[in-house]
User: What shape does this take?
Amino acid sequence: MTTGEGPRRGRGRPRTPGAEERILDAALAEYGEHGWSGFTMDAVARRAGVGKSTVYLRWSDKDALLTDAVASHGLELTAVDTGSLAGDLTQLALNLLRHFHGAAGWAALRITFDTASVDDRLGDFAEAVNEVHGRQVEQICLRAIERGEMAEDIPITAVTETIYGAAMVHALSERLEARADSDVEVEARARHIVAMILPGISTMPGTT
Amino acid sequence: MTTGEGPRRGRGRPRTPGAEERILDAALAEYGEHGWSGFTMDAVARRAGVGKSTVYLRWSDKDALLTDAVASHGLELTAVDTGSLAGDLTQLALNLLRHFHGAAGWAALRITFDTASVDDRLGDFAEAVNEVHGRQVEQICLRAIERGEMAEDIPITAVTETIYGAAMVHALSERLEARADSDVEVEARARHIVAMILPGISTMPGTT
Amino acid sequence: MTTGEGPRRGRGRPRTPGAEERILDAALAEYGEHGWSGFTMDAVARRAGVGKSTVYLRWSDKDALLTDAVASHGLELTAVDTGSLAGDLTQLALNLLRHFHGAAGWAALRITFDTASVDDRLGDFAEAVNEVHGRQVEQICLRAIERGEMAEDIPITAVTETIYGAAMVHALSERLEARADSDVEVEARARHIVAMILPGISTMPGTT
Amino acid sequence: MTTGEGPRRGRGRPRTPGAEERILDAALAEYGEHGWSGFTMDAVARRAGVGKSTVYLRWSDKDALLTDAVASHGLELTAVDTGSLAGDLTQLALNLLRHFHGAAGWAALRITFDTASVDDRLGDFAEAVNEVHGRQVEQICLRAIERGEMAEDIPITAVTETIYGAAMVHALSERLEARADSDVEVEARARHIVAMILPGISTMPGTT
DNA sequence: CTATAATCGAGACGGTACGTCACGTCTTGAT
DNA sequence: ATCAAGACGTGACGTACCGTCTCGATTATAG
Assistant: This one.
């Protein structure tokens, strides 16, 4: 994911340690402020206090930098473990809604779609996405099954896709309608989503 | 959405009839082949066999053309009415999975995210998306409520977002993992999705 | 010499008429002010009030532009005809001393050496130099021979080379020593040069 | 001219003996092959098989290196003393014609013009040129005056400039016309040049 | 024999200019 | 009025080179 270790044999001046991170931060900041079409390599370099060559030594082009920047900061998602399936899913939905609402999460989302549209360089990014996001729901479900809260015949990927999709589309609609939900609204939406799918996966019919 | 009807008064040479469509097709093809950053107006014009002026006479800029191209081919979704909520939702999910799997649907999806990321020109596209997609689920739910199959206190947008989201993320994961689901798998996935949310919105607890 | 007439069939917007000259002027001015290493294509374009593309549409690269700029303005040399060989040569020497002393003449000189060092694109420039400079002395000598002032067995190219060389090296030494000769000194030098070679080519021995 | 003697006190690793020369040779070769605009420090260092620091420890910048490279190989001119003014000048002219015809002499010439075009660092190179070349003619003339062969009122610099200029322009025209004179032609040209200026500086009118 | 120190090869660094490419505008002659 | 063609001003792209710097590895003298 990061840079891919070129020819490092200890010879020559080592790459400036902090540079990688400064550039990634600058990239994310520029992207956040000016969007895709206003995202300039020169501006990133200037903001990071670095020459363009330093950037291009590490990333082959604009897309690679942006993808990496997003991957490095946009895939963070705190783990969830409240003790109950309903609690876990609600907390997860809340996290996701907030994640996709924020600049980094949204950027990551967009980049994911861009990346998935091109034949090249799929491997790394896809792996990362699956690792970080897919695993999360898997853990929750496995624990719930162990506790006997969840039916065993539910395909976990379907649960993942549904919750992620709901949060994702909600964030999308928020943006399309230039709306900014309040905290209360976000929490209500999280509860609604979980209320909708919980009966379908729970072992106890009728739970709300 | 369409063309914006410029100065049409009958005087002077009329606009070449087939041009509109040829350009839109070329735009979609170019976008599909090269993605956003490889999408150029010159290439579209060349591919469509027209001059750049012909393009710019109809669309104000790149974004407008691309948005329109997608809207013209990517928002087609046949209406659904099977007589039951479960049947409607299953058919809708199936349609969506197939829609996002295809080139036009995927392109529309990608464009939607791109469009939603920029501050400008939100209005038109958002309206279109809501019109075409939002209405669909609304109809289904209203009919179900009328039939007494669905609880009245479920926010319809939540249903929309969940179903759309599930289909969307499934298509995304298909691409990220370079997978191509068979017809049977797609149908199973549609049933799973509906099975998951149906108990949560139905008036009859325990329904499958 | 100029641009080499590309595909001109009357279609498309014609090249802006004045641009060629404005760019050449700007190039010469920039070269004069900042020298070779301070000569920038961006600066030339900015000074000429045109875009870089307009420049690169006409000249393939920096060298080509500079060569052309110099050729267009640096080869001007007013004809000479005073009626006598001594007068003609003195006037010519004076012209040359002043020509090479000035920015344009000096630039032309330098470019000539650069051009002669590379195997490519010799043809045009060499032709121009010979046309403009070689012809000049030829005329003078032919008239002198006709008048009986000059021996017929003198190779004219030797005369050319000697006079041109003398003026050239004088200008070179002026620059190397950061000296700026006065008008009187320049005239004296012109007379000295002619005095030195006139007896060698004249039919009347002992003339000064 | 040479190296500029840095801090040499005996402590620390001594400079690699052969490096100086290898770098100068590489510089001259690169200059000869690619000309000024294709002359890069990286290429010189690579060709010489040394690091860039080794180069920059010895010369402050590109110009200094190039100037020095040329000065070290391009100013060699064997002294002349045949016993007569005519003989000396003829031999000198011959030497010059051959000198400027060769790669090193031509490179030196080109560098001289380049150097003289820039405002900085004139001193050193100008001194070198004057020292090596100017002195040569001065010696010849002084001996001739002593022998009574040459008039005393002739400005020696004019003689220098004329002979040097003639040889220089001849070499230039040879290159511009992609011509390569034979030995016989070169000797004839040397005699012609001297024949042209000898009467003008000699004390004996009518001498050939 | 160890410490100090200048030099070596390599190559990353902040800059700056290069020549290319696309944008959206414009100007032409033809339809 | 619209068309195909294509030049225009603008500005970002990714590359190359400058002269500087930092590294670990020599290679000498000084103590």
Notes: Chains D and A do not touch (no CB pair under 8 Å). The domain at 75-201 of chain D is CATH 1.10.357.10 (Tetracycline Repressor; domain 2). Chain D has two domains: 19-62, 75-201. The radius of gyration of chain D is 20 Å.
